[in-house]
Amino acid sequence: MSTKIVVGVDGSESASRAVEWCARMAPRLAAEVVAVHAVEEPVYPVPTLAYVAVPPLSDESRAELLRLLDEEWCAPLRNAGVTYRAELTDGPSASVLVQVADAEDADLLVTGRRGRGGFAELVLGSTSHHLTHHAGRPLVIVP
Q: How confident is the model at residue 47 (pLDDT cuts 50, 70, 90)?
């Protein structure tokens, strides 16, 4: 049985540090890494219509995002010789990370302290904060 690490990746500086942490730790743990990017389709409030969803990503956009995830954001894993898999999954980031970690029966869940959105002055971003309450497995939040 091998060790499995799920890491959240969104292209942010904090997520890059989380991937670099996994690239250093995975060989020591003989672990496979599943790098997950959540594709959360925003919903915008519109007066009189309640909420309007943005159209889903096209197949071409999804393919380009997967290429970016695999070739650029996961480069530290590849460069370290770590066995990894890159996945795009639809849904809110925190929920997606918990679902993938559960489906993979991950031994460890890793995320950066802050993602791309929100308020920079907060110590934790909304995803990492949510994971501290709902991960249900060991969690590393990389500063």
A: low
- Interatomic CA distance for residues 56 and 135, integer angstroms: 27
CA distance 44 to 9: 24
Q: DSSP of 47-61, one letter per residue?
A: TTTEEEEPPPPPHHH
CATH-assigned architecture of domain 3-142? 3-Layer(aba) Sandwich (3.40)
- Kindly list the domain boundaries of the chain, sorted by start residue: 3-142
Distance CA 26, CA 5 (A): 8
What is the pTM for the complete model shown?
A: 0.85
CA 120 to each of CA 22, 54, 72, 86: distance values in angstroms, whole numbers, following the listed order: 24, 25, 24, 27
